[in-house]
Description:
- The chain is an alpha+beta fold.
- About 55% of the residues lie in helices and about 20% in strands.
- It has helices spanning about 5-60, 70-80, 110-115, 155-190, 195-205, 220-275, 280-315, 325-335, 355-375, 420-425, 430-440, 465-470; strands at about 90-95, 100, 120-130, 130-140, 145-155, 320-325, 340-345, 350-355, 380-385, 390-395, 445-450, 455-465.
- The protein starts with a helix and ends with a helix.
Amino acid sequence: MKFxxxxxLWTILIMAVAFGVSGYLFVNFVFETxxxxxxNQALDExxxxxxxxxxxxxxxxxxxxxxxxxAVREIGSQLERGSQGSRRLLRISDEARExxxxxxxxxxxxxxLQRIGEDNRVYQTIPVGDRxxxxxxxxxxxxxxxxxxxxxxxxxxVFQERxxxxxxxxxxxLAMLVSCSVIMFFISSWLTKPIRILTRAxxxxxxxxxxxxxxxxxxxxLGSLTVHFNRMADALEExxxxxxxxxxxxxxxxxxxxxxxxxxxxxxIGYADMLRSRRLDEEKQFMSASYIYTEGKRLEAMxxxxxxxxxxxxxxxxxxxxxxASLMEYLKGIYGGKGDYQFFFSYEEGTVYAESNLIxxxxxNLADNACKASENGGRVEIYGKRVEGGYAFQVTDYxxxxxxxxxxxxxxxxxxVDKSRSRKKNGAGLGLALCAEILRLHNSQLQLESQPGxxxxxWFVLPDREEVQGR
Length: 471
């Protein structure tokens, strides 16, 4: 069942109960008020009849010491005739509670008669056939006799009015419930409109339309819910786009990896088959073996760097203080005697917080890339200096450079600016990708500046301990 229908149904039920209870209490209050008024009038009439009976008894001729029963009946008849046109009946009983006089139609019930005492007036409401009466009883003292005077006042109209009141109230309640149901139907539809909009938005998003947003139609809590839902949808869409980009990147990575494997494997298989299937002279044998060795080394480098990327992508590091001078001296020991290129080193004293072997791998990859981008005899400069908040390393070459539109792609796995040149120097396009992962673990990142034909500068800053702990 829809929420709007539930809201409508519960509203109708609550209204029905409220109208029913309030109607019963109201009609019953009017009835009890009317009955109280009728009872008071019946008791007042009983007092008047008591006085009238005692007065009439005093006017009876005193032939006897006691008031005779015949005189009682005569007085009772006179009192009844005097009340013609009213709704009152009389009954008079003697000391033994035996009936001396009774109006026609007076109830035969003697329950009230037995309750009449010296100092009290009693009454009760009794049904007689299809009519209702208030029966009263009082003690009368007349010429040394104690008689019991009872009256019956017809109050059927009060009960009929109560019945009519209930009937009218039921009809009014039914009409009000129908009217209120129609009004509440529109109100519930209006109140639940934001919920329907959110439901539609959820369904659209479940069907794959992640760009769909719910329209805000109110400024209350449901409107606030719509705003938060749209924010959640924005975050969800952003996360899905990231996941899709990661999936595309993974697919591109696999495709690039398969392509990069194909070229060296084709050369290795081809030259190996040549060596296996035919006799070659010494020069061709050396050339074939050299090709196999070169391509095999390239496969080895690519596999090791790919493994490094996977490992660094899954691990966290415990950073230790390392002397920047020790890192630079290590590079000097590797590249200082390399005669094919002119290496220039310049650095300041300082301490960095890093995993030394990984930072050495970053610096070596950057130096190797600088060599690959330079011609033989080219100049490669490696700097180290203190900067605000950390220690900076920079590698600069004066080689082929990188086009501006490709700078953002150089850290992607297997991306190479000049593929033929990189393959010739055993490049696999994984060096900068590995560097980017290692620096990410050190809360740092690569920065590049390059001009085609003029060279490239690559640098990164290792933050101080306070900077690292604050992240």
